[in-house]
Amino acid sequence: MNTTTNHSTAATRIWLVLVVLTVLTWAVGESHLGGPAIVALVLATAFVKGQLVIEAFMGLRQVRALWRIIMFAYLLLVCALIGLGYAVGLH
Amino acid sequence: MTNAELTLDRTRGNALPGDFAIWIFIFAELAVFGLLFIAYAFTRAGNVELFNASQSLLDRHSGAVNTLALITSSYFVVRAVAAIKQNRVAVCARWLFAALGMGALFIVVKSAEFYVKFSEGVGLDTNTFYMFYLSLTFFHYMHVWMGMVILAVVAWKAAQGHYHAGAHTGVETGASYWHMVDLVWLILFPLVYVIR
After folding, report:
1. CA–CA separation, B50 and B58 (whole Å)
2. Hey, what domains does chain B have and what are their CATH numbers?
3. ipTM
4. N or C: which end of chain B has fewer CB atoms below 10 A?
């Protein structure tokens, strides 16, 4: 019973972090900020948000390592290739 | 928890939450969205000015509000799963209906955004940016509809008392699909609305 209650409190904290990170990305968009450093920050934020959803919300923290690695690698690869595409566009 | 429950918890701990079939679906969907995102990023590399100019005409507020709607909806689904594991059937159903409400908010906001764009005469052939913007967001929009149908069935079944602490795979299956819909949007939003 207590584990589930703690789990819910942890989920609430993670929801709050996700909200804060979303507002941060929103603010970057509203300020019309761009450039490699900003894009790296935005992509890192997206990666962290994605990992939080995968690990805490989808509950993959509790499953065997193989699935966690697949999801982690997927998210990292997609974010990294988006960054690479952005970098190519700079030239 | 008794020892038997702990052991059960540990064994179950290895498997993905919900029906494994939904995970084949989830992996396939993630692969398709991933490829589309990468295609967007590299197409943008050859059309930076066009993409930046078109992107500045998007309604970022609606994109951000929709991110908050999906995050909150996902959170409600987490609470629903936690509730059913505690055998709190009615509470589980309530969280699921709340999650559906957030999904409906997403649909309303996104539909309004599409309506404005279509009223402005924007279409798939407007330019390369809009081709991607419309395809990506519409494809995702269809997934939100799909996720809501699944959630609605699960919520209805939960309300009818079909699930309990010992049998809640259906809730986890619906939850996993819905989190995938959220996860995809968490990349889509910065990619299409913010990165410039």
Report:
1. 13
2. 22-194 (1.20.120.80)
3. 0.94
4. N
